[in-house]
Amino acid sequence: MDDRLTHLDEQGSARMVDVGGKPDSERLAIAGGSVYMQPATLRLIREGALKKGDVLLVARLAGIMAAKKTADLIPLCHPLPLTHIDVQLTLDDENSALHITATARTVGKTGVEMEALTAVTVAALTVYDMAKAVDREMRLSDIRLLEKRGGQHGDYHAER
């Protein structure tokens, strides 16, 4: 395995990786994360009773929009033509959490891990923003890549 940081040139300066010579291939990435909160906050989200509106709908849309803007947010990311982005939010009463999963797909020269991770992160931030008036102790946690398919480095599956 090559252990060099690909976003650094020989002099150690940041650079955008040249992917021009790579072949197009189908790419998929799945990322996940959680927002832990007070049980009362989770109940308010479930009931749609927060003053700012439907947290699940808004967070889902925020995640989708963020995935499409990843290259604008992360300086060395390539802009990608996404063929699919999906954000799912699941309420977990047992752990008083909202779990977020984002799936991103493209056909291209580079992967969509950053798009999936960005979708999860912005969806989680949106949950926090919409519910912070009732629970400032919410905790964003466990944001990570769960699965990657395609590309030169092959498939990846996180231990869940």
What does this protein structure show overall?
The chain has 160 residues and is of the alpha+beta class. It has a single domain (25-151), classed as Alpha-Beta Plaits, CATH 3.30.70. Helix content is 29%, strand content 30%. It contains 4 helices and 5 strands. The protein has a 5-stranded antiparallel beta sheet with strand order 2-3-1-4-5, covered by helices on one side. The longest helix is centred in the C-terminal third of the chain and has 19 residues, at 113-131. The protein is elongated, with a radius of gyration of 17 Å.
Can you tell me the overall shape?
elongated
CATH topology (fold) name: Alpha-Beta Plaits
According to CATH, the homologous superfamily is Molybdopterin cofactor biosynthesis C (MoaC) domain
What distance separates the N and C termini? 23 Å
Structural class: alpha+beta
The CATH class turns out to be Alpha Beta
Counting DSSP H or I runs of 4 or more residues, the number of helices is: 4
**Domains (count):** 1
Tell me the total number of β-strands.
5
Strand order of the largest sheet: 2-3-1-4-5
From the alpha-carbon coordinates, what is the Rg to the nearest angstrom? 17 Å
The CATH architecture category equals: 2-Layer Sandwich
Strand content: 25-35%
What average pLDDT do the residues reach? Answer: 90
Flag low-confidence runs. Answer: none
Describe the main β-sheet briefly. 5 strands, antiparallel
Instruction: State the helicity in percent bands.
Output: 25-40%
The succession of helices and strands, N to C, reads EHHHEEHEE
